[in-house]
């Protein structure tokens, strides 16, 4: 198992945002977490990334207990989050934003990896010396993903990457998720776009009020009438 989170709880004062949630991701797997607004999806990802401290529970990654590790230490091990809302630095250039993704690396292959990102995203290559503020929402999402890839992740966690994108860009985003997964990366995908997320994933979890309400293989979740009623608008 690549990621194994057991019985996580996240509390913000009196708000109990994540309740006894256990999730696993195998190497190379795409797993999705879906659920309504406020269900605790971002809190769960932030706990896995080390950005919020769980009040209890444990997290193993790649065979080691990382529950007590800082966020940068988790990135260094290959557990990387593309946060909700992208959080790129709009006053920095596209290129400098990409470099930030590689800041923890000390190998000699960063320039080569950046070239690969530019080959994949020609819009970013053309704007590499411009401020990131000139990018469209879709391009900013690609930049956030490119930045995350530069950390050389083994597991990429993505928090609602399709939010605010046009339908065309959403389908390009899901193509990209498939591509980077075929390169061997495991992906933990939080989405409101339940339908597409379940299509991209092999397994899924449905969060409701902070707890896992349903889980299973993606196809049976997509066919589950309870999920359909709640999230797929049928
Ligand atoms: N920093 C915070 N401080 C207090 N409450 C928070 C904070 N972040 C999230 N919450 C609350 O925790 C619950 C889960 O939120 P969140 O994890 O953002 O859900 P989701 O990503 O599924 O929309 C919500 O009730 C939200 O209001
Ligand atoms: Mg969220």
Notable characteristics:
10 helices, four-stranded antiparallel sheet, six-stranded mixed sheet, binds adenosine-5'-diphosphate, alpha/beta, 2 domains, single chain, binds magnesium ion, Rossmann fold, 234 residues
The count of helical stretches stands at: 10
Q: What's the order of the H and E elements?
A: EEEHEEHEHHHHEHEHEEHH
**Level of helix content?**
25-40%
Using only C-alpha atoms, the radius of gyration works out to 17 Å
The major beta sheet can be summarized as: 6 strands, mixed
Shape: globular
How many β-strand runs?
Answer: 10
Q: In brief, what are we looking at here?
A:
The protein is an alpha/beta fold and 234 residues long. It has helices at residues 41-49, 71-77, 94-101, 110-120, 122-126, 137-149, 167-182, 194-200, 218-222, 225-231, and strands spanning 3-12, 15-25, 30-35, 56-61, 64-65, 79-82, 155-159, 186-191, 203-208, 211-217. The chain is built from ten helices and ten strands.
What does this structure look like?
Helix content is 38%, strand content 27%. It has 234 residues and is an alpha/beta fold. It folds into two domains: 3-78 and 153-231, P-loop containing nucleotide triphosphate hydrolases (Rossmann fold), CATH 3.40.50.300; 88-152, no CATH class. The strands form two sheets. The chain has a six-stranded mixed sheet, with helices on both faces. Strands 2-1-4-5 form a four-stranded antiparallel sheet, covered by helices on one side. A hairpin with a 2-residue loop joins β1 and β2 (15-25). α3 (94-101) packs parallel to α6 (137-149). The longest helix has 16 residues, at 167-182. It starts with a strand and ends with a helix. Bound molecules: adenosine-5'-diphosphate (ADP) and magnesium ion.
């Amino acid at each position: 198992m690549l990621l194994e989170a057991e019985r996580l709880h996240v509390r913000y004062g009196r708000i109990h945002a994540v309740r006894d949630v256990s999730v696993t991701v195998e190497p190379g797997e795409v797993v999705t977490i879906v659920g309504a607004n406020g269900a605790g999806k971002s809190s769960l990802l932030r706990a896995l990334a080390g950005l919020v401290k769980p009040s209890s529970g444990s997290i193993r990654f790649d065979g080691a207990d990382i529950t007590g590790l800082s966020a940068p230490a988790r990135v260094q091990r290959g557990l990387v989050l593309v946060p909700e809302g992208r959080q790129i630095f709009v006053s920095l250039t596209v290129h400098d934003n990409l470099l930030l993704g590689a800041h923890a690396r000390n190998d000699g292959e960063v320039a080569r990896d950046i070239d690969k990102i530019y080959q994949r995203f020609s819009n970013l290559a053309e704007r590499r010396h411009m401020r990131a503020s000139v990018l469209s929402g879709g391009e900013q999402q690609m930049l956030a993903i490119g930045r995350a890839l530069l950390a050389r992740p083994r597991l990429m966690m993505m928090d609602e990457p399709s939010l605010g994108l046009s339908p065309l860009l959403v389908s390009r985003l899901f193509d990209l998720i498939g591509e980077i997964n075929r390169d061997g990366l495991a992906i933990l995908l939080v989405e409101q776009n339940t339908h597409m997320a379940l299509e991209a994933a092999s397994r899924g979890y449905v969060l409701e009020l902070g707890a896992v309400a349903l889980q299973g293989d993606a196809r049976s979740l997509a066919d589950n009438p309870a999920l359909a009623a709640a999230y797929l608008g049928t």
